[in-house]
Amino acid sequence: MTDNLHYKKVFTGSGVDPAYGDFVKQWEDNIHAFLQFDPARSGKDSAKSGSLSGIPFAVKDNIAVKNFGLTCGSGMLKDFVSPYSATAVERLQKAGAVVVGKTNLDEFGMGSSTENSAFIATANPWDFTRVPGGSSGGSAAAVSAGMVPFALGSDTGGSVRQPAAFCGVLGLKPTYGAVSRYGLVAYASSLEGIGIMSAEIGLLKKVFETIRGEDPMDQSSLGEKDLDAGDVRSVGILKSGLSSVDGSIRQTYEKAAGWFSKAGYEVKEIDLPLLDYTVPAYYTIATAEASANLARFTGIRYGLRPEFAESPEEMVRIARDRGFGSEVKLRILLGTYVLRSGFQDQYYIRAQKIRTAIRLEFERVFESADIILMPVFPTLAFKKGGGLMPFSRNLPMCLPPLRTLRVFRPSPFPRVWPNRRRAETGNCLSAFR
Fold it and tell me: Residue 96 in contact with residue 46, Cβ under 8 Å?
């Protein structure tokens, strides 16, 4: 099911083709990509004609879709149903695309294996014993298995690109502000954005062109005139910083650099000395913002509420203790710590200064190179429940944060090219400007 014309046959005059439901069920029994699958639920919200008419798509379950649940993969929101749709979803529906379900994720987008979901772990379609990556692992697995031709995810520290790499599909994290964040449940507001996964570059481009653009509901969104990229003539490749990358990934990276040279692009070696500082800066900023954003989940207005508590304070404590998983609690604690009085200058403000230094370093590099070629992730797709130490599974190592501190406004079309033959190799490349 890789032909878009075939996908358009999913929805017939009498409803949903039963063969499509059977096909999805066969995959779901093995990989568990979806938390909710109901192709008929939102069909009336989609236009009958448009550039994406009749094409089914999936949405990560931290992005709002009206009348679908919005669990964020968390017990805190297991019964919450969204009363509205995200701007990106509405724009796709106006173009005729149809939401068929919500996909699994690491709780609140915190993780890189989709094993941190409160409900079920997702498997890699290429090898059921391996993880699909995360936190948008459900979306990547659904696309890779052919259940949908494209899916929406969210990306804070590689959460679209890394699972796309592990599952052998294309993944795009647009420039911050290129796609409205309205309807995306906040984790780290200054870093995250809605991204796209697809098996075809043409469809990926069409979806991006559909959802991009300024949105009055998101003051950080950019108009299309602010996103012009220009021509690409030169490619920057890393001179150092690849020592921790798996050998097969490094080999493919070198081959890709050679391909660009043979294709007529000017290939230049670049140096990024601040590479070692990206991980601590990323985690300091992301956890600080997470601790503030997740403070709203108290069980009072919405979310898990205990049946009995002695006081409002105890109710909030019980709700957060039962509703949040261990990874979310860890990041809230880390974020609260770096924001404490007396520690803010030492950690959070210093991380913001490093972020600015990284932006300036990239501005320097982009004076001589139009795009930068980089590995997406330094390791292979690891085994479920093992392969890396628990914290290492959530740590983007040395490379993904370099592409996720998005204050330096690269081009609107960062690209990822994976090895589509064997997802477990992780031979994936990304470029951005």
Answer: yes
Asked about 135 being catalytic, the answer comes back as yes
pLDDT digits (tens, 9 = 90+) for 5-20: 789 889 887 789 999 9
> Does residue 198 contact residue 208 with C-beta atoms inside 8 Å?
no
Hey, is 382 helix, strand or coil? coil
> Would you state the pLDDT for residue 424?
44
CATH of residue 422: 3.90.1300.10
Number of Cβ atoms within 10 Å of the Cβ of 44: 9
Which residue is it, tokens 């093995």? 30
Range of the domain at 225: 1-433
Domains of the chain: total:
1
10 Å CB burial of residue 273 (0-12, 13-18, 19+) is: exposed
The residue from 112, 117, 135, 221 that is catalytic is: 135
The verdict on whether 60 is a catalytic residue reads: yes
pLDDT 10s digits, 254-292: 888 899 999 999 999 999 888 889 889 999 999 999 999
d(CA 145, CA 394): 24
Backbone CA torsion sign across 132, 385, 189, 320: positive
Please tell me which residue in 42, 85, 136, 159 is annotated as part of the active site. Answer: 159
Catalytic residue among 60, 66, 173, 206: 60
C-alpha to C-alpha distances, 249 to 121, 231, 315, nearest whole angstrom: 26, 28, 49
Question: Which of 323, 326, 300 lies closest to 311 in space, CA to CA?
Answer: 300
CA distance 412 to 92: 18
Residue 432's φ and ψ, nearest 5 degrees, are -150, 165
Q: For 285-312, what is the mean pLDDT?
A: 94
Q: How confident is the model at residue 377 (pLDDT cuts 50, 70, 90)?
A: confident
